[in-house]
Write a structure and sequence with these properties.
The chain is an alpha/beta fold. It has 15 helices and 13 strands. It has helices at residues 20-34, 46-58, 95-103, 121-127, 157-165, 212-221, 242-245, 261-270, 283-288, 299-307, 321-329, 343-358, 362-366, 374-389, 394-404, and strands spanning 6-10, 38-43, 78-82, 110-114, 132-136, 148-151, 172-175, 199-203, 249-254, 274-278, 292-296, 311-315, 335-338. β11 (292-296), α10 (299-307) and β12 (311-315) form a beta-alpha-beta unit. α1 (20-34) crosses α15 (394-404) and α10 packs across α14 (374-389). This is Glycosyl transferase family 28 C-terminal domain-containing protein.
Length: 405
């Protein structure tokens, strides 16, 4: 099969389902379009359709020669169908409609690409006689009867055998971070390695339920958390090595569900070194301006690796634990801990990481004949291994596999 192949992507993203499902599917869809395949998204509700349309509109400036990303145009190789009988938490209800759609195909040159935590073995078994099936898995809930199984977890060598044994029914496996379907902005991009660390990225995702950003800034600069009261004048403390931190700019990404945004803006008015970012449309560009990152575990860690930005992670939710643990085991991204268990230890570990990666002894700034600064050398080693682990070509590799399935 080749350019005549049709890929159906079945995924949702809304207030109940993380938008990352649609985002990563669209990254793979773009790679399929580049290989001259056709793409059709199947979604369950108006909210998912609206989110997908927004993702498409932000990618219209992506260089795709002779290709329309507007599903409403007749010559577009990209289309969207909202299923009439779909239910967000029960894929079984949509089966008759999906089976009817697939049964109307003139040939079998189609692949049904599914990215949903609500998948069941009976749902997959019902589809398999009509179409090739690919499944993007995070959870290893059961042995999926599919033609192509993708799991881009960072898998230690010691765990690879267990992963393979849990996917006995899949005809072909794509396992490991080389298949990470990064957003288009992170593909073929690299962050520069600067001699001195000046800019630190801090991100917690869409929300910050443990108030990491507020607590971190307050711990650094000695502010009393201003919960419901006017904060006192900010003053330096001996909590941190101010020789390092007084020269750094902190870039905090405020997610749309962060309840501390007003308090953070109050602090930013008193701290010129604190820069807040809301509604970031191109996270890759922001990341490339930073030298180090402090991030909640999850997809962001893969993106930081692709760009080559040394980072420390922390966790604020159960679904981040395995990701944080896996990256720590690689020796690339240490985990400061879980904010829900010991926030003071997490904050201090993050501070220690930045201090270690930023510190330059005085004689390295005055003597041109000293060896490479230890902190610079350490960052260089880390980013080299990061880029080797995730090179940004995962979506393309998956698209090639879909064309061959």
């Amino acid at each position: 099969m080749g350019s005549d192949r049709l890929i159906y992507f079945r995924a949702d993203g809304n207030s109940r389902i993380a938008s990352g499902h649609l985002m990563r599917c669209f990254s793979i869809a773009l790679a399929c379009l580049r290989l001259h395949m056709k793409v059709c998204f199947l979604v369950s509700d108006e909210e998912s359709e609206s989110l997908l349309t927004g993702i498409i509109s932000t990618c219209e400036r992506t260089p795709l020669p002779d290709l329309s990303l507007n599903p409403s145009l007749p010559d577009s190789r990209l289309s969207i169908i909202r299923l009439k009988t779909a239910a967000l938490d029960c894929l079984e209800k949509e089966l008759p409609e999906v089976l009817s759609l697939l049964g109307s195909l003139a040939d079998s040159a189609a692949v049904y690409f599914l990215d949903s935590y609500y998948v069941t073995e009976s749902y997959l078994s019902s589809l398999r006689p009509l179409v090739k099936i690919a499944y993007l898995d995070d959870l290893r809930l059961f042995d999926y009867p599919v033609d192509l199984l993708i799991n881009y977890d960072v898998i230690p060598d010691s765990a690879m055998a267990a992963y393979k044994s849990s996917y006995q029914k899949a005809k072909r496996l794509l396992l490991g971070p080389s298949y990470t379907p990064l957003r288009v902005w992170f593909q073929d991009k690299k962050a520069p390695l600067r001699e001195q660390v000046s800019h630190i990225l801090i991100t917690t995702g869409a929300s910050d339920p443990c108030h990491f950003c507020l607590k971190f800034v307050s711990k650094i600069f000695g502010a009393v958390l201003p919960f419901g009261t006017d904060s006192p004048p900010l003053k330096n403390t001996d909590l941190v090595d101010l020789k390092v931190w007084q020269s750094l700019t902190l870039h905090i990404v405020i997610g749309k569900f962060n309840t501390d945004n007003e308090l953070l803006f109050q602090l930013a008015k008193k701290l010129p070194c604190l820069v807040l970012h809301e509604n970031v449309s191109n996270m890759a560009s922001l990341m490339q301006t930073c030298d180090l990152a402090i991030s909640a575990a999850g997809t962001t860690l893969y993106e930081l690796c692709a760009l080559g930005i040394p980072a420390v992670s922390f966790t604020i939710a159960d679904n981040q634990l395995s990701s944080a643990r896996a990256f720590q085991e690689t020796g690339l991204i240490p985990c400061a801990g879980d904010m829900r268990d010991n926030p003071k230890a997490v904050l201090q570990a993050a501070i220690d990481f930045v201090t270690e990666m930023s510190y330059i002894p005085d004689h390295y700034l005055t003597d041109k004949f000293v060896p490479l600064c230890p902190s610079y050398a350490k960052r260089l080693s880390i980013l080299t291994r990061m880029r080797r682990l995730i090179d940004g070509k995962g979506a393309h590799r998956i698209a090639l596999a879909l064309r061959e399935t």
